[in-house]
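For reproducibility, we list the full input for the pyridoxal-5'-phosphate complex.
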Amino acid sequence: MDTVQLLAFDRAHLWHPYASTINPPPVNPVASARGTRITLADGTELIDALSSWWCMCHGHNHPRIVEAINAQLEKFAQVMFAGFTHEPAVRLARLLLESTPAGMEQVFFADSGSVAVECAAKMAIQYQLAAGRSTRQVLASVRGGYHGDTAGAMALSDPDGMHQMFRGILARHHFAPQPVTPFGGNWDPGDFQPMEELLDRHGNEIAAVILEPVFQGANAMRFYHPQYLRELRRACDERGILLIFDEVATGFGRLGKFFAAEFAGVSPDIMCVGKGLTGGAITLAAVAATGKVAETISSGSPGKFMHGPTFMANPLACAAGCASLELFREYNWQGRVRAIESQLKRELAGLRNLPNVRDTRVLGAVGVVELARTPEPEAVQRVVKETGVWLRPFGPWLYTMPPFITEPDEITRIVQAMAKAAALRS
Ligand code: PLP
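The corresponding predicted structure, in tokenized form, follows.
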């Protein structure tokens, strides 16, 4: 099939993320991807400033990850995880537990970030049932959150966000206002008050609080003060409520710490990871839980955790995950992220004088430009592509989450592309 035929079939028959089929947005045919670059069928090379939706931390097609997948493929590609186990799953669980916050003891593998969130919520409900607190059937969260696109995950995301139209099938959870004090700002104790009051009012209904630690991604693109998480840990403990950290976006070094929980120095009871777990190579997610959560669930009725995806702990994905976690131990990723952070801070500050720019903010390898007028995504993609960069705006935010191996001249090009996009008339 040549490129023209491929694009025609795609346009006629393929549904892309958040896209229309009547008037589909343009798509770029990819020929290959390596390191920071995606090469299109016509030879155009783009710097992947989004790490392909935030997961390609070591860059595309890292030879070590490719080798690990190929080696596993020679042995077996898939086997059901009920009644079987295998080395890639065991090694990955061990590597993961060696890097998660203190107290995590059990790993449950899932297919994607959204499914990990579903599993975490089910664990919390089963935990409370097993602990004899059967009134605790819902969760609490904060506004401005994003936890995925499946029904359970949508119900936990910002209730005023993009999933409103599905209200009819979504569970009703409790939401406190967004944390206000920014990361690096002076902590305002009043910031936690609304959550404390919500937990006081509804504590008997709430099995767990779930939130994205420090960085609210897809629905807010903002960084908040880690003290909020310390207060939340205390407030949950006082009421027998579990605390779930959704580290799907923040995990694996994205903010400069391996997990965002480290900024607060607190451990959750349950945590979700995904995206960067395989270095971005194949879909895989995991839920880690404390021994107490696992033991309580296992000693209640029906004595087991009620979830079991077909492709649970897929050996190819686990092999990729092992290679990725080993890579983290072998190069100075912290130094790379620190360098990206200081360059983004320096260069994005220059965009603040542009008339359409409201704010710029950076933490770790995340750089956000908040615009006054929401740009038209296709127009942004056109201008950034001219600069040799791949970016996709989200609402009023232009943002970059580049692979950690991105070189300084590439970061400069990303910032130049963002400046061009910010200057667009909407
Ligand atoms: N949780 C968070 C914090 C996310 O950012 C995302 C995806 O962006 C998800 C969950 C859902 O992950 P997935 O798209 O793999 O289902």
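The pocket of pyridoxal-5'-phosphate is lined by residues 112-114, 117, 146-148, 212, 217-218, 246, 248-249, 274 (CB under 6 Å). Residues 66-328 form a domain with the Aspartate Aminotransferase; domain 2 fold (CATH 3.40.640.10). Both points were considered when choosing residues for closer inspection.
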